[in-house]
Amino acid sequence: MKSYEVNFDGLVGSTHNYGGLSYGNVASQSNSQQSSNPKEAALQGLAKMKALMDMGFQQGVLAPQERPDVAALRRLGFSGTDAQVIERAAKEAMPLLVASCSASSMWVANAATVSPSADTADGRVHFTAANLNCKYHRSIEHPTTSRVLGAMFANQQHFAHHAALPAVAQFGDEGAANHTRFCREYGEAGVEFFVFGRSAFDNRFPAPQKYPARQTLEASQAVARLHGLRDEGVVYAQQNPNVIDQGVFHNDVIAVGNGEVLFYHEDAFLETDKMLAELQGKLAKVGGNFQSVCVPRSAVTVDDAVRSYLFNSQLLSRPDGSMLLIVPQECQANERVWAYLQSLTSSGGLIREVKVFDLKQSMQNGGGPACLRLRVALNETELAAVNPGVIMTAPLYGSLTAWVEKHYRDRLSETDLADPQLLLECRTALDELTQILKLGAVYPFQIN
Question: Is 382 among the catalytic positions?
Fold first, then answer.
């Protein structure tokens, strides 16, 4: 039976703005308060989805969330009609309104952790929504994320869904941004690689000093238990706290893996040699041949990696076994990074081709190609059980492009977030989107 790695890209929401909400994310903070272009952001993301589909890769789409999140503002004491809640929040607590308007759900690498059926005890694909409790504006996402994933992967014979972990610091979970799976074939048993920034209960693990470590070891272990993973099919590794303090807020900013290959920066991890040996040994036991590509700091500094998002790329398998790297335009603009990529692809090694995409609207808010996609390994039967409305096709691309052109603004500033009309525009757009994607009622305004 054939198997695939399907990339489900996040559709950028209509309130995409530069709120500078993510402490530790250099791009997010440095572009704070600039005017954004939600329409351009959504079209850039759709263009990437369409391009990958045209290249022969399986591609899906994951819907955005309702914003501003009026229900969240009500829980914080704002009352009255929806318009009054927004107006009062703008007057009394603008930072809370900005947070409630964040379109950060576009970065669906943080939506959940996914384990394919070949790895799990019950032979189903398992999803655990990420609690994202390190940042308030992201912590409010997981209830809707769970409903959307449930509508996409509804067949209980093939799919299992778990609620987010307890929303406390000890179980900080940032989803697939800190999770990679290595395998010979997507439908075969593999090794799931969990990267954590700190331990909540074991002080033997060093912690960063400047920026928060968002993923805990304990959260990763809990997800592995929920998914029924075998001990011999799991490797845990600690992110280097020094690179977290340089702006590497997730592992997918400093490393990316696919198939049997890990592409990583020399400074990405602690105890790197031990980690690589464990990955190699465990993957060999299920018939795999683990390989790694280390980018030396002498060629690309951590600062280069953070500014270009070299590692926040998509590493994709070609039919001939070679690898394709999808990178943002910023890699081409960085002289050292681009020189490294040219030497990499001309060396005849594992990564043979690089394709560049313009994702400037997302990049300025701190998310590159890897942030925008959630990877789900599926066999043919499981793929057939996925809600067909979310699988990208040429007609769906046309419908979504027209939908964006109809509903999205081409300029959004912080002052625009105080306009109650923005909520009405968002709800009108999402109501239509759920019909396009055949999701049913997944948003609070549709349910309540």
Answer: no
